[in-house]
Structures are given as structure tokens and as C-alpha cells.
Amino acid sequence: MLFQEPLAYRMRPEKIEEVVGQDEIIGQDTPLYKMIQKGHVPSMLLYGEPGTGKTSLAFAISGSTNKEFFAINATTAGKKDVERIISEARMTNEAILFIDEIHRFNKSQQDSLLKALEEGVITLIGATTENPFHSVNNAIRSRCGQIKQLKPLNKESTINLLKRALNDEEKGLGELNVIMDDSLLEIIAETTGDGRTALSLLEDIVYASDETEDGIHVTTNTVEYCIKNKGFTHDKKGDIYYNLLSSFQKSIRGSDADAALYYLARLIEGGDLEAISRRLLVIAYEDIGLANPQLCARVLPAIQSVERLGLPEARIPLSVITVELSLSPKSNSAYKGLDKAIKHVQKGVTDEIPAHLKDTHYQGAKSLGHGEEYKYPHNYPNSWIYQEYLPESINSMSYYQPKDLGEEKRYKQVYDKLKQLKQAERKKNL
């Protein structure tokens, strides 16, 4: 038996009691569940990764009420569609308007909802993969009593969803008599916390399996083949994309090689080697820095190897450099010192440059006293001689605060020694 609609579409919950997972948001003990059971639906924004059930929850809320329900997608709908729905809603006095991908609406389109929201003509349920605090107008957010973040389904919830689909004879695969071990459902659940992807995988697996007189037999090989060829991706403009990159860097910064490899795997499956390479280069200088400059110098050759190899071989140098960066000593002292100096300059600390440091490569410079007392360090033992380089008003300022880690220990020793020598010379000149 073949269905026209995909399994993930058919298995959408029709009532809030049928929602799988998201117990913290719509579980039977939550205020939102109790509100809806009593017929009160507040305007709300639902956000989360693709496949976490935002659209399903909106339709389940609609199915649990007697209110008229309108659903549009902001990628294809416009201001006129919103105005038409509001006009229809005025005739029924109250309706639910579900807008998927609401972050795609511009400010004018979002503002067109405000009057109807204030008057209670519509209840808005907006869904977005973006953080609504960044992507939805403050005026809309302030009129939404509930802003809920939906999380990926955990393993148990995903298995329950798959079992429901296998047993449901009306909307699911119940009539096909699928013979499938629970351990195979666990493999699917461990692959993704995306309910839509899990159901799509299950459907592919079932129709790829051999059928006998007693039913459809699903094997491990079939499951692994379908998972391998599913081709997971992520929206490169969505929150999940930036969250993965952030988690990747923070795991390396925190010296957790296992977590770093996990997030690297997710980024690789997303297919954006350029973003991974760019982030690795930033990490090398931002988080490793002077603690291991030799490693910093190896990151660019590793990235060039990635570009030449392409996937799947590119994963090899990526894995090596990721583990190296994770387990390396860390230091951010160099750029933090620069940031401190930048803030100083931005506050207007741009005092007179010492005359002996000023440019002498033009006629008349000497008559201005430029460079006259400059001491060329290479003419002195150890290529160092005391002279002031900072403007007089800030010549005791320390921007660089060295760390006693890795290779930076050596830099710290040199820095501290030079600082002591400068202080001693200053005392002599007092």
C-alpha cells in the first residue's frame, strides 16, 4: 500500500495529547497544556531546529480547539495574504494564524499583524528556526505571551514516535506488517533527534526491505544503507549553523577533544568545509595563540590540504588538527592585549609620539628633531638598549599580560626581564 503523502506528514499529531516529546512545553502538567484544554490559546512564538515539531505542535493546538485555523509560510506568502486572512478572521471574531518561517517576513509584513493581534481578532503562532529575539520584531514578541524553544527529540521520544508509526494502521505503516527489531529503531533514534527525518528514514527503510508472506523484514544492512545515503544538511543561515560553529570552537577552547570531534562531524555532514576551515584558523590564533605558535603555523597547511583533498578524505586532516588544537595549551593574551590598547585609543589616548621614534625619511625632519636621539638596538649587546617607546603619559602602561603556559612561558620570561630592566633604568633617570 502506497500513500501519496509522506509518512512524516501523515503522522502529524491531531491533538496536543498526541505530541511526542517537548514535555517541558506541552506536557500534561504544563500551564500551556492546561490553557489549551480550557480553550484559551495565547499568541506564541515557537523556535528550534528543523524537525523539532514546531509545525506539528501548531496543528495539534489547532486540533484541540474549535477556533478557525489559517496556515501560511512566510517564504511564499505576503502582506496581502495576511490582510485577507485577517479580513476573514473578523467575520468569525477569533482565529488562529500559523505563520511558518515567520523570520522571513520583513518589518512591514510583521507590523501588518499588530492591529489584529491587539484587537484579539487573531491568535498568532509563529514558527522559526532563528532565535526570535534576533529575527522577530520587538512589537510582535511583546504581544506573544509565550516564546518556546523546542529541543530535538531524545532517543526515547524518537523511538516512541517510530513505534507509533509502525503500529498506526490508518496513517502509519501498520497495515504493512513490518518486522523490525527494536535495536534497529535505536540506530535510527541515535542518528537524529529530528522527528521528520526519523520518520522519513523509517519510510525509506521499510520500502527498501524485502517482503515475504509473513511481512516486511527489515535488516541491519538496509537500515545502515539508508542512513548512510540520507545526506544530512543544515541551513547555513540558521541558528543551528552558528550554534554548531560556536559549540565547535568552545569545545576546542575547553580542551574537550571528544565534543570538538562530535561538532566537527555535524559540521562536516552539513557540507560546509569553508566555514570549518575559517573557524579553525580563527581558533588557532584566538585560543591557542602564543601558548603554541608552532601549532598555529600548522593550521593553514592543514586547511590547504582539506581544500585539495575534498570530502571524504578531508575529514582526516580536519580530525588531526581538531584534536591537536583541543589538547594544546591555550592563550588569548596577545589579542586581549591588543583589544585593551584599541579601547585606550578609542577613548582618545593618542598622546604625542616620542620625537626619537618619528619618521626621518623626508627633508626637514632633522630640523624638527625627529629621530635624533633614537638608539638602534642592533648596535648594542643582545640587540637591546633602554629607551622609551610609548608616549610619556602612558609609558608605564602594560597591555600584554603573558600567561605561564606552553611556549608562552618563554615569552613571559623575556617580557618580565625586559620590564625589570626598563624599571631599573627609569629609576636611574629620576
UniProtKB/TrEMBL annotation:
Residues 40-153 form the AAA+ ATPase domain. CDD domains: AAA (cd00009), HLD_clamp_RarA (cd18139). Keywords: ATP-binding, Nucleotide-binding. The keyword Phosphoprotein does not apply. InterPro entries: AAA+_ATPase, AAA_assoc_2, AAA_ATPase_RarA/MGS1/WRNIP1, ATPase_AAA_core, DNA_pol3_clamp-load_cplx_C, MgsA_C, P-loop_NTPase. This is Replication-associated recombination protein A. Pfam families: AAA (PF00004), AAA_assoc_2 (PF16193), MgsA_C (PF12002). It comes from the Bacteria. Belongs to the AAA ATPase family. RarA/MGS1/WRNIP1 subfamily.
